[in-house]
Design goal:
The complex is a heterodimer of chains A (196) and B (163).
Chain A (H helix, E strand, L loop, with lengths): L3 H27 L4 H35 L11 E4 L2 E3 L7 H29 L6 H28 L7 H28 L2
Antiparallel strand pairs in A: 1-2
Chain B lengths: L2 H43 L8 H4 L1 H22 L6 H28 L18 H29 L2
The chains are: A mainly alpha (196), B mainly alpha (163).
């Protein structure tokens, strides 16, 4: 199921990727593969991702508050929230109480995860690549994907309208695994630095 | 904890994940073979059945799933062998992301082609597209992780070479 917001996010991602490839190609001709060039590339990518995240924060925040308080929309008559295939809500009053609170928890967690991603890209932007802070941010994202899946599962089972894929749960586990490898690598590097 | 203990721990977990990936590889291999056999045999055995393109157009989905699984399996196999994030290991991760991306794009095309012709064009809605965004998100995440590790690894190599 693809909602319009998701489709727009995907388009933004694709455009960002293409734009970044162009920037990278342009920079690649002038600068050799030096440390500075690489750091600059990571900084540029982090900046682009941060801008995209801020945009999604603004749009997502407006969309959620607009849904809650009935604010005006762009192009549509009203904001809608898709919980499952046959359960599309146009106002919080239509939702059962349990579903409403689960949606609030889900959205709050999503905003928090967005904030963690922003923090991660801020760290990358400042040239901090492999520290405990980075690992914590990445690990949180893995846990968030798994918790989000369970909230979706809970909502859809309450509505008796299940349509879930297990991709996000596997991705969450994979991200936790990556975070763990990064953490172990960081510890190894720290130990090596301390060895005389 | 000592270095070798950390490394042994990663290898141990990688081995478990590799076995899970191998199970996925076997399942997707079986699915691919069944879809191929079904596509070829069904029209031959059941001649009365109306010809349908779905049974042929679904085959690439299983092929994409199989190749993605294979790349993830190879990536975990490299980790199991103690090759953490060298060029080849990251290459497998990147390849898995590319195949996953291709799978998602094909899924979108497949579901558009397989939809019933719309009686009323105004009924057309994005809500009718079943491919989940999770797949796309997963592919892009893997691609980002692969790119980031490649950059970091090359950065480290340069640092080691700098006197």
């Amino acid at each position: 199921m693809i909602s319009t917001t998701e489709l727009i996010s995907i388009l933004v991602l694709i455009v960002t990727y293409i734009a970044f490839r162009f920037v990278r190609k342009g920079a690649g001709g002038q600068t050799a593969k030096s440390r500075q060039a690489r750091l600059l590339r990571i900084k540029n990518a982090s900046f682009i991702f941060s801008v995209c995240l801020w945009l999604s924060f603004l749009l997502g925040g407006y969309w959620f508050l607009g849904f809650l308080f009935g604010w005006p929309t762009f192009g549509h008559d009203i904001f809608r929230m898709v919980v499952s295939h046959n359960h599309v809500y146009s106002s919080p009053s239509e939702m059962p109480s349990a579903i409403f609170w689960l949606v609030v928890v889900k959205q709050s967690l999503a905003f928090f995860a967005g904030a963690m991603l922003l923090r991660l890209f801020w760290l990358y932007g400042n040239g901090i690549l492999f520290t405990a802070k980075n690992v914590n941010c990445i690990r949180f994202l893995g846990y968030w994907l798994i918790i989000d899946w369970f909230i979706d599962y809970q909502m859809q089972s309450l509505l008796r309208d299940m349509d879930l894929s297990t991709t996000s749960i596997f991705l969450g586990l994979f991200i936790i695994f990556f975070a763990w490898i990064m953490d172990e690598g960081r510890k190894i590097q720290e130990e090596q630095e301390l060895t005389v | 904890m000592k270095n070798f203990q950390n490394k042994a721990k990663i290898i141990k977990v990688s081995k478990i994940l590799r076995n899970i990936a191998f199970a996925g590889l076997v399942v997707s291999g079986i699915l691919m073979s069944i879809s191929l056999i079904a596509a070829v045999l069904t029209p031959l055995l059941l001649k009365k059945l109306p010809s349908d393109t779905t049974q042929f157009s679904i085959i690439p989905i299983f092929i994409f799933i199989f190749v993605t699984n294979l790349k993830i399996f190879r990536f975990l196999d490299r980790l199991k062998n103690g090759c953490f994030f060298d060029a080849q290991t990251v290459g497998y991760l990147n390849a898995a992301a590319n195949w996953w991306l291709a799978l998602w794009i094909y899924e979108v095309v497949f579901y558009i082609l397989m939809q019933q012709p719309w009686n009323n064009p105004h009924d057309f809605s994005l809500y009718h597209f079943p491919p989940d965004v999770g797949g796309l998100f997963a592919a892009l995440t893997l691609k980002f992780v692969a790119w980031f590790f490649r950059e970091a690894q090359e950065l480290q190599e340069e640092q080691e070479l700098t006197v």
